[in-house]
User: What shape does this take?
Amino acid sequence: MTVKKIGIDIGGTFTDLVMMDGETSLTLKVPSTPDNPGAAALQALQQLREVHQVDLTTVEALAHGTTVATNALLQRRGGKTALITTAGFRDVLEIARLGRPPKAIYDVHYQHPEPIIPRPLRFEVDERINYRGEVERPLQQDAVKALAAALRQHGIESVAICLLYSFMDPSHERLVQTVIQEALPGVPVLCSSDILPERREYERTSTTAISAYLAPTVTDYIEQMVREVSAQGLTQQLYIMQSNGGLNTPQTAVASPGSLLLSGPAAGVVAAADIGVRAGFPNAISIDMGGTSFDVALIQDGQCLLSMETRLDEAAFHVPMLDIQTIGAGGGSMAWLDNAGRLRVGPQSAGAKPGPACYGQGGTAPTVTDANLLLGLINPAHFLGGAMTIQPALAEQAVRDHIAGPLGMSVQDAAAGIVRIVNANMAGATRLVSVEKGHDPRDFALLAFGGAGPLHAVVIAEELEIPWVVVPRYPGMTSAAGLVVADIVHNFVQTSVAELSQVTPGQLAQAFDALQQRADARLEADGVPQLQRRHERSLDIKYVGQGYTLNIPLTDMPIGPLAIKTLTQKFHERHESFYGFRADEEPVEMINLRLRATGMLNKNTPAPQLPGARQPDAARLGEREAWVEASQSLQRHAIYDRSRLTTGHVLTGPAIVEQIDSTTLIPPGWICTVDGHHHLILGKEEWPAHGTR
Assistant: This one.
């Protein structure tokens, strides 16, 4: 069955649209509009309708990735939010964990960022539920009504409720929520028992507070998108990408705004996992280098790895998120000299406007794109397929004025230094998700995308001794393509503390059944048929007395004595892998039960093409001189048009492959093969076009 789906990814510099219709695809790229992110998405849809004559009423679904939540948090542009806590706990946000970020360990002047909810807007209610879920001090409804009146006087735009041990009994939170919703209609009121029903008071409070803080901004954005997309003629389902790599409906996204914090980069990792499996590399490290940032993630056995906790602006945020490391290293990252005269690159970015100096839009700071242009790695006549004019003279002036002149070196050497530093920064970030977590990068392929990713990929691979590099068919559109292949995903968690050896199979099965009922209710509301649902169970486990847990998956085997024994054994093995030791004689306890519910959506799976001719003569455009980092000199490179390459073509470096959304560099000593899905497979030896070794 042919399914027509659209994915729109809003990046810091460009907004990308991909439409899949059976085995054919259509792509669009428009400049992002940072002041109004949704405007670029609507502009892309308008082009699709008016220029390409696509009837949007025939589209089955539109999936959308956004950085609205991320930007609102980092720029502190969320709503005016109140926090309601149990008496005596209003300062949990302030006390936090008393830790410091690594960069500030020796900084005597370091100060923790202010909590997103200031102390005057943190309120207490007199109530108490104990750790067993028993009510010790009842909540007085009249006191809550008085509190609601105070919130109205403060002009509160959103409310976070986090009462002690509400994950064991949410009744008090529910009562507070009901009273405030009646008193403040239209104001988002979020309960920690909905957002994060698990133990650890600070993490639960912080996560709920962040979600509530984002609620007004996210709600306004999503409601506007729904209205304007409908006005464009798209009447079918709109989905929003979540941080966990799954799609969500607008209604559910509004109820849990924090789930969108990594919406932008998550789609690219989902696409990378799908591409890696089809290309024959289920174990891959995905790198996404766009205009403003570099996102790197590890994929194992075709699955994106999840992190259950992260820190955002030094605040704890505990929801399942794809394990993505992000640094400020993109095509628009600016080169600058610090106070000691050392060359630095990023994290500041020229963004979409004014953009790199070569764009001619008023930018004067040199960027990575300017450096690549001066090194011959980017064709000024073919940028965005020739749709955008870039000016090498402006790039040269920026590098000379800001870097080469002050350092007393040539413009070419300064440009090479800029690229060398950004490559080193990206290699370091890649080590964070591989080497520092016990994985040998030599056992993985490097899957490079984003508009700038394929230009830098092989240098990063050589630094880490990664043997293979995979470049998707549309690298600059990969995140948008990930939205098209993603499924609906919901995560559920429930705290249940007990020694694993004392838990009966019946108790464990009953607890997971309760989570599955909640999951099925959610998928039913999403319209997912029973046969398209998948449930994955796992437990957070630790040694008794430890302060940290490891998440251990529970296989599809029936929950019985063997399953519990297998869980314990897997925990010992995982602990040894992560921390270098195991203690089999120590008792093990479970802390949280987790369930990941997937609603598998209809999607197209194009069949691979059979290889044809090996020689890509028809795709060759000519030659030009470009920089080779290994020899630190200019060499002649063969130039190829990606749109003319077909399955079976083999290219030998030094060569450059140009396409409308990206440029791929093939250095000397590397060979590039076009596989059956039109991916470029780069290695020191030829890769069989049929995708097996």
